[in-house]
Specification:
The chain is mainly beta and 547 residues long. The protein contains 3 helices and 39 strands. The strands form 9 sheets. Strands 2, 3, 4, 5, 6, 9, 10 and 13 form an 8-stranded antiparallel beta sheet that branches. Strands 22, 23, 24, 25, 26 and 27 form a 6-stranded antiparallel beta sheet that branches. Strands 28, 29, 30, 31 and 32 form a 5-stranded antiparallel beta sheet that branches. The protein starts with 8 loop residues before the first helix and ends in a 16-residue tail after the last strand. Mean pLDDT is 88; it is low at 1-26.
C-alpha cells in the first residue's frame, strides 16, 4: 500500500504526477505501487543534439541548448549553468523545462497569436499555456524527441541563411525535427539506511553535481521520524562513496573511505553532529563497499572496503580489505583495529570473460563460524560471476584460491544469477536463521552494450540457510514505464539497495533511475520502500524472474 504523506515538495510533485502515468501492468512490484516515499530527487539535465556542418555533408557536431535569460541559442559544451535545464513533470505525460539558473521556461514564441513551423523558442515566465507543455518520446539508443503536448510541432535546430542556427519548432509530418540527448548534471548514489538509537530512520546519500550551487560532491543525511512517510534533510557531511551506517552502544556511526583514509564518524545525538576519527591512512584512494553492512560476530565488528592500489584501470585496480575491532574496546582508537593486507584480483583468473576486477564485498559469518567475504566480479558477457573469500583466523589476511567453480565450503569463483550486475546487500537474520539478500538478478545482456553495460531494472529478494545456495524469494521492484524491454534496461535502474530488518519488515532504500530520460546508472532519486512480513513471502521459481 502506498503512503501519501508529506515529504519534500519536489518529491511530492513527482509522486503525485507519477500517479497519473498509466502503467502497462499492475503487479505489486511495479515501482509506483511499491514506492513508499521519495527521500530525495534531482532532475537537472543538459540537452544536446548533433547537427550537420554547413557545406560539409556527412560531418556533424554536437551543440548544447543554452539561454541568456530570454533568447535560446546553441553552443559547444561549456559546463556553465545556463546550459542546464530542470525537467519538471506535469500531469498527463507532460513536462515543463525550466532554465536552471532562472525562473523562465522553454516556450514557443507565439507571434500574432499564431504558432507555426519556424516559430522560435525562448525562455519565458510560466503562464501554464500550451506552448510551454512538452512531451518527450524515447527514440533509439538514449535519444529523445521533444514535441508540444497539444500541437503537432517538434523542437529542432533550423539552419538559416549564412549558416546561422535557430532553435525553433517544425511541423511533425514531413519534418526533420532533431533527436536530443539528455545528460544528468546531478545524480544521487551510495544510499545507506539505519535505525538510530532513538528510533528515527537515517539515510545517507551522495550527490554528484556539476553546478555552481552544488559543485563537486556532497554527502547528505536525511531523517524520518514517522517510519519513512516523510523525510527532512538532517546534515551535510563530506562526501564519500558507499559508506555504511550502523549503531553501537547508543551511538550512530559511519565507516567510510575518505580519500586515502579509513574514517569512523560517530554521532551521540542521533545524527545532528559528528566527530571524525581516522583509523588508518591506507596510502591509496579508498572506495567503500557500496553501503554493504557491517558485521557483528563474537564480540568483533567487521567492515569490508576497497582501494585503488591494483593495476591501473576499472575495476582491476580494486583490492579488497577487512577492518575489524573488538566492540568492547574504544573503536575510535586506531590501535584497537586490525586491517588485513590487501587482496588483489588474480592476474590470471580461473574464470574467463571478466574485466579482471572484484568490488563491493559483503562480510558475513558462515554457519561454521568462519568469516567470509562475498564479492561481485565484473563480468559483462554473462553478468553472473562472484567470488567467495575467507578471513584468516588472526584477522590479518584474506584467503582466496583461484579456482572455478569453487568447491563447497572453499574459496574461489562461483556462478550465480545475483552475483555481478550490481552491488548486492546481505544480512543474516537470527530470528529466521536465514541470510537475506537484495540484488539485481542477471536478466541477460542489455539491449545495447554502452558505457554502463548492465541490466538493473529488476530488484529481487533472495534467501539462504547456508550462505552458498541462495533461492529467489520474489521480485521487489520492476519497471512500469516501458513495455519495450530494451528501452527499460537502458533508462531504468533500481540499484545499490541497502536494507535493515525492523520487526517483521524489511526497510530499504534504492538508488533509483526512474522518470528520467538519461541512462539507468545516473540515478535521479533515492527511494524508500517496505517489505511487510518478509518471512511469509511465497518463493518463486528461478525462471520466473522475468515475465
Amino acid at each position: 500500500m502506498i503512503s501519501i504523506r508529506r515529504f519534500s515538495a519536489c518529491a511530492a510533485a513527482f509522486f503525485v504526477c507519477m500517479l497519473v502515468y498509466p502503467a502497462p501492468r499492475t503487479h505489486a512490484e511495479d515501482f509506483r505501487l511499491a514506492l513508499h516515499s521519495v527521500v530525495e530527487s534531482v532532475n537537472t539535465m543538459t540537452m544536446s543534439t548533433a547537427i550537420e556542418l554547413p557545406g560539409q555533408a556527412g560531418k556533424s557536431q554536437t551543440v548544447f541548448l543554452q539561454h541568456d535569460g530570454g533568447t535560446v541559442t546553441l553552443a559547444a559544451e561549456s559546463k556553465a549553468d545556463n546550459q542546464v535545464w530542470q525537467l519538471e513533470r506535469l500531469p498527463g505525460l507532460t513536462w515543463r523545462i525550466r532554465a536552471y539558473n532562472g525562473d523562465g521556461y522553454l516556450s514557443v514564441v507565439v507571434d500574432n497569436k499564431a504558432l507555426y513551423g519556424g516559430s522560435r523558442v525562448a525562455v519565458l515566465p510560466w503562464t501554464d499555456s500550451e506552448n510551454q507543455r512538452w512531451c518527450v518520446t524515447c527514440d533509439k539508443d538514449l535519444s529523445v524527441a521533444i514535441r508540444l503536448k497539444t500541437k503537432p510541432y517538434q523542437l529542432r535546430v533550423n539552419t538559416l541563411a549564412k549558416g546561422k542556427l535557430q532553435v525553433d519548432v517544425s511541423e511533425l509530418e514531413g519534418s526533420n525535427g532533431n533527436l536530443w540527448n539528455f545528460k544528468a548534471v546531478e545524480k544521487l548514489d551510495s544510499p545507506s539506511i539505519v535505525k538510530a538509537p532513538n528510533g528515527d530512520l537515517v539515510v545517507y546519500m551522495k550527490k554528484d553535481g556539476d553546478l555552481s550551487k552544488s559543485r563537486g560532491k556532497s554527502g547528505m543525511l536525511f531523517r524520518s521520524k514517522d517510519g519513512g512517510d516523510s523525510w527532512v534533510r538532517l546534515a551535510d557531511i563530506s562526501a564519500t562513496y558507499g559508506p555504511t551506517l550502523f549503531t553501537l552502544k547508543d551511538k550512530l556511526c559511519m565507516l567510510a573511505g575518505v580519500d586515502t583514509k579509513l574514517v569512523l564518524r560517530v554521532s551521540e545525538d542521533n545524527g545532528d553532529s559528528w566527530t571524525e576519527h581516522v583509523i588508518k591512512n591506507i596510502g591509496h584512494a579508498l572506495e567503500s563497499g557500496g553501503g554493504a553492512p557491517v558485521l557483528f560476530a563474537d564480540g568483533v565488528l567487521y567492515y569490508s572496503f576497497m582501494d585503488y592500489g591494483g593495476p591501473r584501470g576499472w575495476p582491476n585496480s580494486f583490492r579488497l580489505y577487512v577492518a575489524s575491532c573488538p566492540v568492547e574496546s574504544d573503536i575510535t582508537d586506531p590501535a584497537n583495529w586490525i586491517i588485513t593486507a590487501p587482496r588483489p584480483f588474480p592476474k590470471e583468473p580461473a574464470v574467463s570473460g571478466t574485466r579482471n576486477g572484484w568490488l563491493e564485498p559483503n562480510v558475513l559469518k558462515a554457519p561454521d563460524g568462519d568469516i567470509w567475504l562475498i564479492a561481485r566480479v565484473d563480468h559483462i558477457a554473462k553478468g553472473n560471476t562472484g567470488a567467495y573469500l575467507r578471513l584468516s583466523s588472526d584477522r590479518k589476511q584474506i584467503e582466496f584460491d583461484n579456482v572455478y567453480p569453487a568447491p563447497e565450503n572453499k574459496t574461489g569463483f562461483i556462478t550465480a544469477p545475483w552475483a555481478a550486475p550490481a552491488k548486492f546487500h546481505i544480512v543474516y537474520d537470527e530470528k529466521s536463521g536465514r541470510y537475506w539478500m537484495m540484488a539485481n538478478p542477471y536478466c541477460g545482456p542489455p539491449a545495447q552494450n554502452r558505457r554502463h553495460p548492465y541490466v538493473r531494472n529488476v530488484l529481487a529478494l533472495y534467501s539462504s540457510t547456508d550462505m552458498r545456495n541462495f533461492v529467489l524469494v520474489d521480485r521487489l521492484l520492476e519497471d512500469d514505464q516501458f513495455s519495450d524491454w530494451g528501452q527499460s534496461n537502458l533508462r531504468t535502474g533500481f540499484q545499490q539497495s541497502s536494507f535493515i530488518i525492523s520487526g517483521n519488515d524489511l526497510l530499504y532504500v534504492s538508488r533509483t533511475a526512474y522518470g528520467t530520460f538519461n541512462n539507468y546508472h545516473d540515478a535521479n532519486m533515492i527511494t524508500f520502500h517496505k517489505v511487510a512480513d518478509y518471512q511469509r513471502m511465497p518463493y518463486l521459481k528461478p525462471d520466473n524472474i522475468m515475465r
